[in-house]
Amino acid sequence: MKKEYLTLDRIEGSLIELSNLHKVSFGEVVKIKSNDEKQEELGQVIKIDEDKAVVQVFGNNLGVSTRNRKVEFSAHPFEIPLSKDILGRVFNGTGSPIDKGGAIYSKEVYNVNGRPINPASREYPRNFIQTGISSIDALMTLIRGQKLPIFSGSGLPHNEVAAQIVRQAKISDTNGDNFAIVFAAIGVKHDEADFFRESFKNSGVIDKVAMYINFADDPIMERLIAPKCALTAAEYLAYHENKHVLVIMTDITAYAEALREVSSSREEVPSRKGYPGHLYSDLAALYERAGMIKGIDGSVTLIPILTMPNDDITHPIPDLTGYITEGQIVVSRDLSSKGVYPPIDVLPSLSRLMKDGIGEGYTREDHPDLSSQLFASYSKVQETRALAQIIGEDDISDDDKLLLQFGEEFEKKFLTQEQNENRSIEDTLNLGWELLKILPSTMIDRIDPKLKQKYLGEE
């Protein structure tokens, strides 16, 4: 039952305090109206203390007067209407269309907070998603139903990588009709949003993408709702329309900063670097919505992108993200300065579920061994480069010189590719074998002899 209150205790910025309330729920949506009914704002209950509550307004400051406002409690949480018509559409952070395509009409509305998935009903992620980017597909393979974040830094081309993944991603063992992408842009500038929209439109994938865009100048509270709206849309497409959905969210750092700002306005006790103590549970509530459910054909795969402040991987945001997710893809500033695109640093990157979604029956029988060998060889390249800087490249052994040559070719041919270059998994693996031919046979020690004979022609 809707309830309306005419007396407010206090207004401070975008927070409203009320008392003498009856049966108000945490997370309940409220409408804040002016007495003349000309102005209306949305808000949400963010704190309850006996018969008192604090409401966070989705908008700018309301001023300080408590006499020209009334608050109507809706008796339901934040919900959005969803149907399969959301594909090809663009919405704001609260799920309202901003593409002049009209409203979404549906008999059902869905709580943006989602529903918890029973761990016993989760299905173990299998089968890889091909991104067309060699470094990801071969060395840190994205598995359907996985949550695999991208750790980047300010000024690095993570937006370009995200757009390329959206354009090229596909599941090889299914037809393209049941594959969809939900893209959430959190706290982005208008030119960044335009870049994503034009990129998807020009590549012809816009009809398979549902976009949720929260601009940097939008209300701070909307920044906290945007990823939840996107994930709710993904869950609908996966579990009601039986689609395999890839969710890309950028930038999680903007979400965490908004969480810190709202927490500060609530006067909560801060934790590490001023972030609230519940940052871990808030991030987990987002990330854990990815997965697969037994008996349902659809799946939700999540790639959250976050920019590490000062490139610090021990910062609370990437640190906590690493605990929750199943690996990470690290974007390197050093590789970017060398002109490598995408500048993915393969050594600190990993996919913990990769081993269960590659190999015979999934990608190719040589994939696990080849991936292990490329990792090991590139790791030795770093050691040899450090040695060459000390004693000089002329004084290292012939084998070490071949190793340095392998490192240069690996970065130039394997890691580097054009933004519109879409490599199949076969092309990527074949390229890996071509690079291994640079090395002497004694250095190729992580590959089954039968595979060495088949792909390198060695006995």
Structural summary, described in words:
This protein has 459 residues and is an alpha/beta fold. The chain has helices at 134-139, 158-168, 190-202, 220-239, 252-265, 279-287, 316-324, 333-337, 367-391, 398-415, 425-436, 449-456; strands at 3-5, 10-12, 15-18, 28-34, 40-49, 52-57, 69-77, 79-81, 90-92, 109-111, 122-123, 129-130, 150-152, 170-171, 179-188, 209-215, 244-250, 291-293, 299-307, 327-331, 344-351. Strands 9, 11, 13, 15, 16, 17, 18, 19, 20 and 21 form a ten-stranded mixed β-sheet that branches. The mean pLDDT is 88.
Structural class: alpha/beta
The percent range for strand residues is 15-25%
Tell me the number of helical segments per DSSP (H or I, 4 or more residues long).
Answer: 12
Regions with pLDDT < 50 over 5+ consecutive residues?
Answer: none
Mean pLDDT: 88
Q: Round the Cα radius of gyration to an integer and report it.
A: 25 Å
- What's the β-strand tally? 21
How far apart are the termini? 78 Å
In short:
This protein has 459 residues and is an alpha/beta fold.
Characteristics:
459 residues, ten-stranded mixed sheet, elongated, 21 strands, alpha/beta, seven-stranded antiparallel sheet, V-type ATP synthase beta chain
